[in-house]
Specification:
10% helix; alpha+beta; two-stranded antiparallel sheet; 259 residues; Alpha-Beta Plaits; 2 domains; nine-stranded mixed beta sheet; 4 helices
Length: 259
């Protein structure tokens, strides 16, 4: 199992296919065997996993595994203790109640890099920083959580997944490092290698994710079907129409006027 850690810069898409308007993962990593595990939105920064292990993404994002993801978040306004307590208890979003989060208010981090472009500055409105850890993986969850308690997110940096700490690794934006999974307790109970699953498949409660990706058949080779078509059947194999005995016999003149 190979695991590469990337410090994703602001404005980079969490995908490998090229994009005309934005940079993507392929601008920083050139390895066709790797896939993304635990994506970040384009306007978020920080730690992402790149791996050749098919089951790692489900392992990280499934709340049942309690793999906490930690973020440093700059919010609009001086966040109150009441708002922090709401986040700790869980907040109601459009897609349901969130699980309780681990949240503390922190000073502005000194070790962080400058963002390009920088967060907008408004002299009459203060900003504050929190450190929040969640074990869910909903779309833009942290941003929606802080907004729901009245303090919209201005900047979001993922610093940890489990015990993998971006700050300790000392990675600057755009830098990568390969880690040895056996040195981290997070990977001792990782599931066996699995095929990557399609994102279009709807996950079922208690399921393992999407259907495995199917291999493409060689060009020119048609898919074989185990069911005969009607024109392939012998006369005795063709299905018979079932009636209740009241069906009228076929007549060419039925329903037609005599000429």
């Amino acid at each position: 199992m190979k695991i590469i850690i990337l410090n994703k810069p602001y404005g980079v898409l969490s995908q490998f296919r090229k994009d005309e308007a934005h940079m993507t993962m392929s601008d920083f990593v050139d390895d066709p065997t790797l896939r993304l595990a635990g994506r970040l939105d384009m306007d978020s920064e920080g730690l992402v996993f790149l791996t050749d292990h098919g089951g790692l993404n489900q392992f990280i994002t499934n709340p049942a595994n309690k793999k906490y993801k930690t973020y440093l978040v700059q919010v609009d306004g001086d966040i109150s203790e009441e708002a922090l307590e709401q986040l700790r208890e869980g907040v109601e979003l459009k897609d349901g109640m969130t699980l309780p989060a681990k949240v503390v208010k922190v000073s502005e981090p000194e070790l962080l890099w400058e963002r390009n472009p920088p967060v907008r500055y408004r002299a009459n409105i203060p900003t504050s920083w929190i450190e929040i850890s969640i074990c869910e993986g909903r779309n833009r969850q942290v941003r929606r959580m802080t907004s729901s308690v009245g303090f919209p997110t201005l900047r979001l940096i993922r610093t940890q997944i489990g015990s993998i700490d971006l700050i300790q690794l000392g990675l600057k934006p755009g830098e990568t490092v390969e880690i040895e999974p056996l040195l981290y307790s997070d990977f001792k109970d990782i599931p066996a290698e699995q095929p990557y699953r399609s994102r279009s498949y709807v996950k079922k409660p208690g399921g393992t994710g999407g259907k495995p990706m199917q291999k493409k058949k060689p060009e020119g080779e048609k898919k074989k079907s185990g069911t005969k078509r009607i024109w392939q059947m012998e006369e005795g194999e063709k299905p018979r129409r079932k009636t209740n005995g009241t069906t009228r016999p076929n007549s060419k003149n039925r329903g037609r006027r005599a000429r």
